[in-house]
């Protein structure tokens, strides 16, 4: 089991942070490993939407499709792999800390199988490292 939780404070209103982070079209701008996002269902984002991502992780090219499992705009977004190399769930939360400050959390949970299960501790370490970079990127983008 891999369960990685990271968080950051971003000096922007909660709605602005959530709108940017929840937009799949923006993912390649702030995610270190995501190279492309493609809508597989009509916009806007809603429960049941499907988005295909192309990414690189640990030197491998990955293609996977996320389904939006839960979405409460400005507060929560939960995505689960509908198709991909291993089952993964990604959760974003946004919480106002002050009028112009948001706490954003990014959590990845999954059960790698086969060879991936053997390297799960290393994967968790690398995911945590990448997630921290991702959150620093979104902070830099939104605060500039």
UniProtKB/TrEMBL annotation:
Family matches, as InterPro entries: Polyketide_cyclase/dehydratase, START-like_dom_sf
Pfam entry (one): Polyketide_cyc2
SUPFAM superfamilies tied to this protein: Bet v1-like
Taxonomy, superkingdom: Bacteria
Protein name (database record): SRPBCC family protein
Organism: Paenibacillus soyae
């Amino acid at each position: 089991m891999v369960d990685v939780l990271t968080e950051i404070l971003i000096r922007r209103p909660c709605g602005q942070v959530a709108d940017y982070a929840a937009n799949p079209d923006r993912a390649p701008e702030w995610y270190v490993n995501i190279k492309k996002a493609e809508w597989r269902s009509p916009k806007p984002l809603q429960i049941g939407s499907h988005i295909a991502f192309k990414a690189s992780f640990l030197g491998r090219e990955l293609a996977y499709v996320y389904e939006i499992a839960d979405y409460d705009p400005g507060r929560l977004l939960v995505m689960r792999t509908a198709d991909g190399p291993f089952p993964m769930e990604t959760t974003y939360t946004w919480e106002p800390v002050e009028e112009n400050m948001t706490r954003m959390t990014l959590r990845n949970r999954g059960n790698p199988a086969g060879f991936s299960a053997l390297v799960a501790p290393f994967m968790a370490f690398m995911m945590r490292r990448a997630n921290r970079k991702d959150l620093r990127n979104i902070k830099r983008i939104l605060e500039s």
